[in-house]
Amino acid sequence: MDNHPVIIAGAGPVGCTLAEILSLNDIPVLLVEKEAAPNKEWRASTFHAGTMELLEADTTLVDDMLEHGFKAHHVHYRDRHRGLYASFDFRNIADETNYPFRLQCSQATYVKIAFEKLKKRSNVTVQFESEVSHYEETEGGLNVTLNTKDGEQTRFTPFLLGADGGRSKVRKLNDVTFDGYTHEERWLLVGTTADFHDYIPDLAYVNYISDPDEFLFILRVPEAWRFLYPVKPEVSDEEALDPASIQKTMERALNTTDTFPIVENTIYKIHQRVADKFYRGRSVLVGDAAHLNSPMGGLGLNSGIHDAVDLSRRLVRIYREGADIEEELAAYSQARSTVAKKYVKAISEKNTKLMKEQDEAERKRLQDDLTETANDPVKEKEWLINSSLIASVKDQGIGRPPETSERK
Ligand SMILES: Cc1cc2nc3c(=O)[nH]c(=O)nc-3n(C[C@H](O)[C@H](O)[C@H](O)COP(=O)(O)OP(=O)(O)OC[C@H]3O[C@@H](n4cnc5c(N)ncnc54)[C@H](O)[C@@H]3O)c2cc1C
Predict the structure, then answer these.
(1) Average pLDDT score over residue span 160-189
(2) Domain residues of the chain, as ranges?
(3) I need a labelling partner for 106 at 20 to 30 A (CA). Which of 2, 183, 302, 388 fits?
């Protein structure tokens, strides 16, 4: 197996994490990316404690991330009319983790940091403008077809890792279902260099703001303050992206007539879906290729990184200890799909409901419940451990050998 690289489809954050860990463990990789360069969209902005712990254990990325990101100690839940109703302080789990905060650092920065490391490794090859288009199973691996700018290529690999995002080609080739639903409204993400503390001085760096008509998610990354809000189905992309319309939304939210310099504006469709099986033979799904969720909770990329660490530990066992391939991949699929449904889907759906609940009495009940949780030290701690993915790591393990996994 050492003579042929593992092929990773997609040089997004999850593909880069896989390449980082496998190459550190002397497993050669070919990282194949369909675009001409790594994606520069900021997208994800939060790294949770559970993720930082894994990255510290298995990668060389953490020091650079800490240098380029900043620590958000609080998460606020607000209502547009009622104001702040729940405040959580990550420092209250300092006895559980070395990272009692959300590290605010964009996905693009994470990819850049990883690429700097990968460029220097002799067992890593990165091939841009190359798209995985097909595979055939063969003795001891797969023949993978790549569409490149120089034409079609076929490469043998012991394993194909599909880290090729929400529209994953590898998932389609694996022929698995991707059940779930798509939210009716799209979500518009806007970034501005204006300082929101000038308008709401006690704003945390991460704020979930409920409203039946126009909920808001306001958060800070090193480059900007960001604003995520819904776009109704009847509003076209063009209308939503009109600078005057964005300006009006910000004026309403921050109660001002000031003009905001916009440095980012992208519309996203939001899905909640999980693949029914995360592998087929030696072709394995990782990250968004395997599961998609609402960004409320900042869990998509984080859980994708957890997938990457889990799978890498299994591949290292397969390569170095001759562990059983089918058992390891079945255990991976079982553990990671449980996390995608029981933790990631549950947390992100709960947050989304809190933000957009239409029924006034139900909205008040959900908010009162959260106020009680935030004000009770035991419940607050449980909430923090769960939302920072420490709980899922403790309960389901990461790369836990098959004989000790729930499967047996
Ligand atoms: C607005 C927004 C905010 C978010 N905020 C957070 C957050 O704070 N925290 C969090 O954890 N998550 C967040 N997420 C989710 C996060 O962005 C995704 O979970 C993350 O991008 C998944 O990474 P990935 O590497 O699996 O897929 P991607 O980032 O989609 O990368 C896939 C890569 O594969 C390439 N590719 C596609 N097809 C092929 C092919 N056939 N062959 C080769 N290459 C291919 C693509 O070009 C791309 O580079 C957010 C998402 C959105 C939309």
Answers:
(1) 97
(2) 6-179+272-407
(3) 183
Contact 178, 277 (CB under 8 A): no
pLDDT of residue 408: 43
CA angle in degrees (0–180, nearest 5) for 258-262-264: 150
* Distance (Å) from CA 288 to ligand 1 centroid: 6
Ligand 1 neighbours (beta carbon < 6 A): 9-15, 32-35, 39, 43-46, 107, 131-132, 163-165, 169, 189, 268, 287-288, 295, 298-302, 304
End-to-end CA, the chain:
28
List C-alpha distances in Å: 239 to 41, 215, 242.
Answer: 22, 18, 5
User: In whole angstroms, what is the distance from residue 171 CA to residue 169 CA?
Assistant: 5
Q: What is the topology classification, in CATH, of domain 6-179+272-407? A: FAD/NAD(P)-binding domain (3.50.50)
- pLDDT value for 404: 57
Over residues 306-340, the pLDDT tens digits come to: 999 999 999 999 999 999 999 999 999 999 999 99
Q: Which helix (H) or strand (E) holds 133?
A: strand 130-138
Ligand 1 centre and the CA of 169: distance in Å? 14
How far is residue 325's CA from residue 317's CA, in Å, rounded to a whole number? Answer: 9
CA of 110 to the centre of ligand 1 (A): 12
pTM of model > 0.85? yes
Instruction: Please state, in angstroms and rounded to a whole number, the distance separating the CA atoms of residues 350 and 352.
Output: 5
Q: Which two tokens stand for residue 404?
A: 């000790």
For residue 337, the cross-strand partners are none
